Structure formats: structure tokens, C-alpha cells
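pinned: reference chain
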Amino acid sequence: MARRKSRKAKPERATRVDPPPAAPAAAPAPPVEAATAVAVEPLPVGDIIPAPAPRAPEAPPLPSSRPGSGAVLHAASGRRALGGFFLSGLLFSLLGSFLPSWGYHLRSDYLTVGLYFLFLNFGVYVAFHFTQWLLPRRGVRFVLASGSALAVASLVYLASVSGPVPPSLRMAGLFGVGLSAAMVNTAIFHAITPMYQHDPASTINLAGIFFGLGCLATSVLVAGTFNSYTAEAILLIVSCIPLFYFLAWLRAGKSPAPSTTEFPSLRVAMRDFRSPGAILFTLLLFFQFGNEWAIAGWLPLFVVQRLGASPATGIALLACYFAALLIGRIVAQALLRRIKHSRLLLFSVLGAFFGSLLLSLTATIEGAFVAIVLLGGGFAAIYPLTAESIEHRFRSYHPGFYNGIFSLGLTGALLAPTTLGLAAQYWGIGSIMWLPLFGSFAVFALVLAIWLEARLTRS
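pinned: its C-alpha cells
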């Protein structure tokens, strides 16, 4: 009987306990309705608009942690800065296009021409060290604007000493041109960092295309105005281009250059520089730029004095050379996925070899034109081939590290015409075409070494 009473008691307790849990479940219902009523009323008033405001402070921590997030924030400024390579190409190619305007096609003062290129190289060397100190203190936009302003001042000064004056007076102006061009280069390498981290090969190729466009613009401008304006007027016209860049950098917003915390330290970056791949790539740029600028610096004088062409024709052939380089790089980039790289390299080396040989032996303008096209097409494929081979090598990108490699390449570019000035002084102007001939074989060997080193590193 007691057990039966206890069994009956349990259901009674269950029935007595059930109502209390049900009461709390039903009790919150009215507050929910009140809450929904309160939430529906502010919709037309717009109280929900400030709701995203507290989330805004959470966005800034993203860029410094991942390279990709910084690319999203700085892509627009990087693309704008990439166009600064046009100004760099314009300034570096100015001397080769402008030598006939100073009358050096009428006299054989080759040693002075070599010294012109040497002082241009001094400016590049000083800018490499000076700009590394200036950038952390004043920022990318200030360096870009200062480099453009210095370019304007240097071109105006060269215009003032373009008459019958001692050549030594032009050395300071050429030093300023090299200094300003290298300042712009260094600042651009910092500004395009997010683009390089996203796609190194495409960024390098775009930089080369803009640089080539600047070189082409200089030769076309000087060739088109040679017979119509004086040397002073041509330089003043050219100075309007860096003046435009100076005003554009001033009007641009505050430079969103990446902070140094996004990169490894310079000591870590220099470990890459001691690697075989970085050393081979630096030597390649040194010899390849030397080959290209041996032609770019001396072609107008060579065509005028060896073939009897007019100065305007010589500068026009220089424009054809830069156009062949530019078009060849674009075509080579499109052919990289369709033709074996070894075959493309062989064609480029053979084209440069036969172009140099034909240019040194030709006696007509037509032969010179064919040789120039072969030279430009041969030199053009080297840069895209190398850019693709290093795409996965320098992911820990440091702007100062890569700018150092590029500056050493530019040093080779300007030392080559300096050396050719000495060679032409002692052996005649016909000897200047032998340097690109032997330089093509050096580039061929270095590209093969880079491919071998990259394959061994990946394996």
C-alpha cells in the first residue's frame, strides 16, 4: 500500500511541477512583443544607420597583418605611382637623344660624352643613399615631388648652358638629372610594394613598359622638334613633363605608403641579396642594361658620323630602337606561355648578336634600321624571361633591397656608355658596337644560370 501511494504521489508531483516551468516559458512572451514593437518603430526614423559605426574601428588592424589586405588599401596609389617610371625613362634617356642638339655629331669629343654619362651615374649613386635616409622621415609623396622639382630645375639649368659654353658647366645639370631620376625610382619602389607582393612578374613587366614609354617619348619629342627649335627651347619643352608630375604629386592625397612593419628588416632582406639567385639577377641587369644603353647612348652619333645621316634621322632611329624594345617586351610576354623559354632565349640572343654585327658592318640607313629592329627584339625578351623566373624568389619584398638591385643595373646601364666614350676616343666610333655583341653572350650565360639555380632551389 505504501508503494502504491508513493507511485501515485510521483505523478502528482509531476503534475504539480509542470505548471511552474510552463509559467516562466509563457512569461517572457509579452516582453518579446514589446521589444519587437520598440524595434519596428525606429526604422523610419533612421536609428539603425549609426549601428555600423561601432564596427568601423575594427577595420584598420587588417592591413598590417597580411600582404593581401595592404594591397587592397594601397592598390590605387600603387597604380598611380607606377606611372612614375615613365618620368624615370624620360630622364635617363635624355642624354642619348640630346647629344646631337649640343653639336657632338660634328666633332669627335668622345671623352667628354663619356664624362657626361659618368656624372649622370654619380647622381644615381648619391640618390640611392640619400633617398634611403629621406624616405622614412618625409614619406613617399614628398620624395616623388622633390625628385620631380629637381628634374625641372636641372633641365632649366641645362637649357641655360646649352649654348657655346665649357662642357664642364653641363656636368652639374646632368648630375641633377641622375639624382632626380633615381629619387623618383626609389620612391616608386616603395609605393608599388602591394602590387609586387600580389604579382611580382606582372609588376616588373609593367614597370619596364612604362620606363620604355618614357624613353620612346624623349626620342620622339627631340626628333620631332630638332629642326624647328633650339636646344634651349627643346629642354624647356621637356621640362614641362616633370613639372606636370610635380603638380600631380602635390595635389595627390597624403601618401599611403606601407609602414616598415609590413616588411622584414633590411638585415633579413640583405640575406636574399647574398643568395646566388639575387647575385645572378643583379649581374644580369648590370649586363643587360649595359647592352641596351650602349646602343641608346651612342646610336644617334654613330648613325650620323658613320652613315652620314642627319641628326634628326639619327634620333628617329633611336626612337625606332626604343619602340622595338617596347613592342618586343609586350610580344615576348604574350609568347611566354606558347613557346619554350629556352627557344625564346636562343632567338633573342641570336637576334641581338646579328643585330650588333649588322649595325657595325652596315653602310646604309636601311641596313641600320634592320639591325636596330633585330637588336631591340633581341634585347626585349630577356627582361620578361627573367621576371618570370624570379616570380617566386623574392616574396619577402623589401623596397630598398629591390631598388638596390635595380640601381646596380642602372649603374651598368650608364657605365657602358661611359666606357664606350673611352673606346671611341682611342679606337674610333666603329668600336662601340662590339660591346653589345659580347654582352649578349654574357646575358645568355646568366639567364641559363638563373634557370638552373631556380630549378635546384625548388627541387
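why pinned: Residues 276-307 form the longest helix (32 residues). The radius of gyration is 32 Å.
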